[in-house]
């Protein structure tokens, strides 16, 4: 599953009519006394304008694993007809004495008249019904409006991950209770029914006219959260056969207005499936996949077996119109969902504590897949660099949880689905990959998937598979315990700072580790990690060799080593090639000096890998912020950028500088801007003039870098950037047909507004209001956040806030974000947010509010601002959690300003 859209759990809307005898349970897990083997599921869906509900029955084959007199399963928001519940074994009938319901855990407990016998098979049958809900979980309803007839079409579709199958039928709703499923769907003939497997046969309903019942083929052993079905009248844009060994057939369902648009998911899904099949050397076991684009969806996408669902709102359709970044994010979503077919669907975590075991690999293999399918775009490294940047920044907080952590109730399970688990999970798999090397990694992964196909795993199973493969390939010694080492990365949050001190006389290096906290002065704790050590020396810059030469053990914190390949005193040593493992490094003074000189003076920047270059910048900036170095050293290193040809180090460095620049006071800001201009000028000059970009369009792979260079240069008013951008905007709006990648449109319109007055605002605002194209509106909204006059901006904010249209809500957020990132409107925009907080709280989801407040928090610098924010928002429940984070961020900013900004400015003055 990909990325949470909302984490607020909206409660069901109808009452449950079951006897409720409350009991207190310590245990939130189902008892292990009975095991479901197979479900026969019949669901009749009513979907006309007055009646939207379903009725169903579940016949579950159960194996008694122990003698017991009760059966516990999950059910939520279902009206279960007790009189029709039955339990039989052969000819024997079992009475149900009493039903007990535990609402906290959604347990439905049958207390039986007689004991079930160990190893016997029983058949439990239950009948139930419920309304189709509006909360995008369980079996929910959605709709679309036909653009020609204006008629509303209803549809019903499932979202069972993580704990919502129990809202559609009574079941053993935990990932380890895998079973086979025979699904039969009943519906009016004007609809079509889908589930994970093809339809075998249909027959007329015996009492409802024009209704049919259709049997679907048996679904292979699977967890309940991966089961899916839908009843709809969407259209199939294309049926395609893939090149997988089963010749899997893809169909692509969407509302009619989307037909004819090029869908990224449609194009790459079959290729991805073949790619993974070859990579993992395990065939995709189903015969078809339906891709269903749903008008409303809780997540961006969901990897259900045989019926992958997508959120229509989040899928850029018409390729030409959307910014490259958004296209990439869709491609990566699709790549992620199909990696899940192996990681998650075929091999499933035993429990949600190990959610990362499916999300981490799916994210990482998604990157590899995109690089393999479209190597010219080289997107993988960009994603990895982004994940590293996020990780090193977020994980420096003392409260960050481990990626593998105990979760109990449904809210906690859902709370696991955070970017953090996905990104650190991905970095953890990447670490394993680089640690054991290509050969052993794929052997280990294949044997892991093969051995546990249709089964369940804990993280130790992955470690063991890799350990075995590593041993076979002689990359680890037999006494090395990979589990113990890897557990130190997944069972605790945070990461270490490794300090490397060279003794230039003896050639020895001394290493130690301690947890890195961004907040300096925080008490040292005793956490430690198993840190793989791989050294690279200047004269042999083999950044490709990433298997460890040594380990820094845990709990031993300090280690003295003689390097195998003694570097001379005038060549640098760099630890952790390609930033294979997620730790920061600090070196002794002389080694830093050697690195900086090499980067600045060697023609090839010393052959240092781009991820290491980005990391060296990141590390020195972070070390300066905790006063372990002066900013002087970081700025000394930054000077090398004027010859840096690669995007990643630039992106990392400017990202950090922009954040810190926002915290400076007015006098300091001018110096900072001068510095940024000086730094960005050579970068800007490398790219063609913006006004002529149509003639000199960069290759797709270079667009992100070019867009970055223009937008940063214009932001700091480098050379003629603003004028060039204005010319571009003028030509674009007068020649409406002008084809221009949307990334460049954003720069153009932003500069036009930043440099313009009322007339320019009114014009662009007019374009925004008159545009019917969603992506065009988004671009213009971002640009409108660059306007100088708050009166103008307020006009836009009021306009978008007033509307109920989802798109205008998105536009509001985009504009506010860009205003908060800019320099002119930060404070009035902050005031506007605070004074409209109540309205925002009603309108936006928690995740959006958190993003908004964190953007605001990044700009808070004074105690007064923090206090005011707190006073105004404290009483609004929706803001509780985001507010806490924003206030913390504000306090950190204040601390940085007090302790570090002087040093920062001093360094800037030196390099002006
Ligand atoms: C909707 O379906 C129900 C039966 O499921 C039927 O009684 C009702 O008349 C239908 N309403 C419309 C508007 O078709
Ligand atoms: C169900 O039966 C088992 C014994 O098989 C017992 O330990 C357990 O407490 C019972 N559960 C409930 C909810 O009564
Ligand atoms: C179940 O049966 C009992 C006794 O025959 C009856 O009173 C009750 O109304 C029935 N419940 C339902 C939901 O039909
Ligand atoms: C269509 O779906 C939207 C969003 O879920 C909902 O607000 C609206 O009421 C639905 N329209 C109809 C006619 O059911
Ligand atoms: C499930 O469906 C298959 C195919 O129709 C059938 O052969 C099988 O008997 C069914 N299983 C059960 C338990 O009904
Ligand atoms: C970071 O940690 C502090 C406590 O040390 C906590 O109050 C704060 O909410 C955390 N910030 C984030 C963004 O998680
Ligand atoms: C290092 O890896 C890159 C990319 O995988 C490859 O192009 C290059 O030849 C390798 N260099 C060495 C020395 O193995
Ligand atoms: Zn996922």
Task: Give a quick summary of the entry.
It contains 26 helices and 33 strands. It is α+β, with helices and mostly antiparallel strands.
Explain this structure to me?
Among the domains are: 7-233, Immunoglobulin-like, CATH 2.60.40.1730; 342-490, Neutral Protease, domain 2, CATH 1.10.390; 496-609, Immunoglobulin-like (Sandwich). Helix 3 packs antiparallel against helix 4 and helix 23 (846-858) runs parallel beside helix 25. The chain has 26 helices and 33 strands. By secondary structure, the chain is an alpha+beta fold. Strand 19 and strand 20 form a beta hairpin. The strands form 8 sheets. Strands 2, 3, 5, 6, 7, 10, 13, 15, 16 and 17 form a 10-stranded mixed beta sheet that branches. It has a 6-stranded mixed beta sheet with strand order 1-22-23-21-20-19.
């Amino acid at each position: 599953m990909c990325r949470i859209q909302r984490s607020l759990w909206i409660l069901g809307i109808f009452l449950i009519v079951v006897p409720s005898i409350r009991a207190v349970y310590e245990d939130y897990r189902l008892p292990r006394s009975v095991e479901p083997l197979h479900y026969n599921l019949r669901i009749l869906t009513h979907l006309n304008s007055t009646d939207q509900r379903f009725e169903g029955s579940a016949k579950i084959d159960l194996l008694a694993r122990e003698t017991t007199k009760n059966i516990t399963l999950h059910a939520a928001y279902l009206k279960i007809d007790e009189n029709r519940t039955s339990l039989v074994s052969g000819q024997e009938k079992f009475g149900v004495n009493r039903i007990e319901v535990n609402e906290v855990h959604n347990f439905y407990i049958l207390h039986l008249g007689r004991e079930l016998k160990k190893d016997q098979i029983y058949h439990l049958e239950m009948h139930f019904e419920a309304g189709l809900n509006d909360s995008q979980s369980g079996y929910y309803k959605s709709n679309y409006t036909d653009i020609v007839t204006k008629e509303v079409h209803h549809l019903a579709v499932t979202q069972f991950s993580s704990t919502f199958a129990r809202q559609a039928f009574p079941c053993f709703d935990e990932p380890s209770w895998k079973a086979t499923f025979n699904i039969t769907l009943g519906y009016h003939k004007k609809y079509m029914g889908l589930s994970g497997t093809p339809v075998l046969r249909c027959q007329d309903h015996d009492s409802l006219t024009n209704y049919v019942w259709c049997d679907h083929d048996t679904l292979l052993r699977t967890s309940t959260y991966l089961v899916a079905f839908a009843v709809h009248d969407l259209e199939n844009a294309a049926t395609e056969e893939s090149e997988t060994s089963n010749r899997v057939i893809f169909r692509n369902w969407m509302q009619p207005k989307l037909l004819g648009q090029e869908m990224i998911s449609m194009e790459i899904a079959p290729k991805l499936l073949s790619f993974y099949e070859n990579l993992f050397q395990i065939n995709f076991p189903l015969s078809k996949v339906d891709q269903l684009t749903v008008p409303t969806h809780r997540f961006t996408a969901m990897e259900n077996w045989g019926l992958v669902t997508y959120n229509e709102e989040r899928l850029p359709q018409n390729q030409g119109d959307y910014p490259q970044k958004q296209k990439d994010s869709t491609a990566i979503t699709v790549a992620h969902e199909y990696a899940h077919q192996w990681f998650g669907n075929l091999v499933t975590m035993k429990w949600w504590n190990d959610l990362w075991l499916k999300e981490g690999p799916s994210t990482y293999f998604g990157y590899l897949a995109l690089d393999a399918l479209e190597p010219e775009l080289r997107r993988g490294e960009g994603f990895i660099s982004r994940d590293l940047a996020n990780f090193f920044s977020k994980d420096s907080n003392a409260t960050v949880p481990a990626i593998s952590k105990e979760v109990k109730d449904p809210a906690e399970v859902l709370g696991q689905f955070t970017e953090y688990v996905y990104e650190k999970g991905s970095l953890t798999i990447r670490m394993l990959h680089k640690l054991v090397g290509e050969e052993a990694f794929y052997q280990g992964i294949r044997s892991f998937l093969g051995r546990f196909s249709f089964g369940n795993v804990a993280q130790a199973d992955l470690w063991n598979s890799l350990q075995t493969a590593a041993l076979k390939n002689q990359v680890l010694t037999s006494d090395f315990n990979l589990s113990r080492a890897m557990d130190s990365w997944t069972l605790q949050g945070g990461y270490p700072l490794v300090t490397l001190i060279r003794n230039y006389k003896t050639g020895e290096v001394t290493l130690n580790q301690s947890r890195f906290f961004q907040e300096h002065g925080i008490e040292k704790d005793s956490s430690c990690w198993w840190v793989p050590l791989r050294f690279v020396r200047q004269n042999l810059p083999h950044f490709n060799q990433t298997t460890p030469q040594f380990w820094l053990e845990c709990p031993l914190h300090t280690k003295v080593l003689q390097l195998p390949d003694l570097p001379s005193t005038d060549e640098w040593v760099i630890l952790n090639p390609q930033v294979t493992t997620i730790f920061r490094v600090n070196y002794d003074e002389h080694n830093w000096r050697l690195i900086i000189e090499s980067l600045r003076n060697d023609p090839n920047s010393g052959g240092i890998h781009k991820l290491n270059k980005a990391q060296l910048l990141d590390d020195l900036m972070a070390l300066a912020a905790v006063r372990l170095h002066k900013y002087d050293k970081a700025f000394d290193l930054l000077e090398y950028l004027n010859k840096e040809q690669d995007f990643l180090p630039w992106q990392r460095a400017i990202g950090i500088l922009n954040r810190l620049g926002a915290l400076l006071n007015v006098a300091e800001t001018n110096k900072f801007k001068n510095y940024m201009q000086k730094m960005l000028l050579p970068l800007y000059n490398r790219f063609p003039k913006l006004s002529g970009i149509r003639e000199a369009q960069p290759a797709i792979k270079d667009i992100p870098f070019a867009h970055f260079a223009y937008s940063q240069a214009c932001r700091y008013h480098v050379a003629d950037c603003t004028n060039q951008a204005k010319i571009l905007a003028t030509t674009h709006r007068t020649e409406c047909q002008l084809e221009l990648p949307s990334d460049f449109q954003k720069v153009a319109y932003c500069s036009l507004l930043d440099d313009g007055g009322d007339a320019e605002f009114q014009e662009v605002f007019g374009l925004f209001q008159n545009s019917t194209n969603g992506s065009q509106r988004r671009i213009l909204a971002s640009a409108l956040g660059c306007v100088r006059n708050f009166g103008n901006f307020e006009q836009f904010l009021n306009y978008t806030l007033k509307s109920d249209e989802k798109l205008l809500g998105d536009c509001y957020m985009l504009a506010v974000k860009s205003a908060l990132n800019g320099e002119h409107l930060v404070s009035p925009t902050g005031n506007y947010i605070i004074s409209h907080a109540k309205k925002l709280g009603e309108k936006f989801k928690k995740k959006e509010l958190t993003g908004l407040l964190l953007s605001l928090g990044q700009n808070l610098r004074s105690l007064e601002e923090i206090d005011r924010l707190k006073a105004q928002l404290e009483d609004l429940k929706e803001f509780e959690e985001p507010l806490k984070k924003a206030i913390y961020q504000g306090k950190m900013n204040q601390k940085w300003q007090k302790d570090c900004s002087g040093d920062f400015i001093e360094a800037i003055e030196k390099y002006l």
